[in-house]
């Protein structure tokens, strides 16, 4: 048997496996369904994580910026303590363990495992976003806050119109990386029965008795979307740098 015959046979074998994994029985629809679910998970977790992270960061920054020598707000101190415990626990434990607790302990009776996964991802992301945003707020000169106060702005308006816009430029790379990581971490939701790309790839592998091509296929899908998100992040960073020059 010559080399070309072997190559032709291997190519035909690969073609048959490819057809079985992606085409037969309309299985390509399962991958698209999994991709749609993954993107939905990412958006929900992204919104939850951003809102939670910004709120925690603002609370912790407000507590840290209380003037020395003055009596500290006891309510703010308690809330700050809760936020500190939250970020410490979430950042100090694996996301997989957190998802298992959410799925099999806290929401053990829930049938919507995908939304439970989105909640777990959002709460996990919120802790990291909080530290990223807090670092960005601390990087802004305290004189900016004092300038806002001197103009008669309250703390919330000062943060909203003066501090946060400046901090956002500093934290954009780290924030973009966190969002990309969040997109990839949606694959962990399959551990609690959530329906996303890995879940449907497993389903196809179970039917075809071959998981290699389904897993390689979703790996390529993840890679393509990560490259797109990275390109968009770079484009946004360049635009912001250009606006700073003008």
Label this structure with key terms.
about 250 residues; mainly alpha; 9 helices; about 0% strand
How are the SSEs ordered, and which strands pair?
Elements: H1 3-22, H2 28-64, H3 74-92, H4 95-106, H5 113-139, H6 142-150, H7 155-185, H8 197-208, H9 212-245
Give a quick summary of the entry:
The chain is built from 9 helices and no strands.
Overall description:
By secondary structure, the protein is mostly helical. 82% of the residues lie in helices and 0% in strands. It has nine helices and no strands. Helix 7 (155-185) packs antiparallel against helix 9 (212-245). The longest helix has 37 residues, at 28-64. 28% of the residues are buried.
- Oligomeric composition of the shown chains: single chain
Beta-sheet strand percentage?
A: under 5%
Shape: elongated
Q: What is the overall pLDDT average?
A: 87
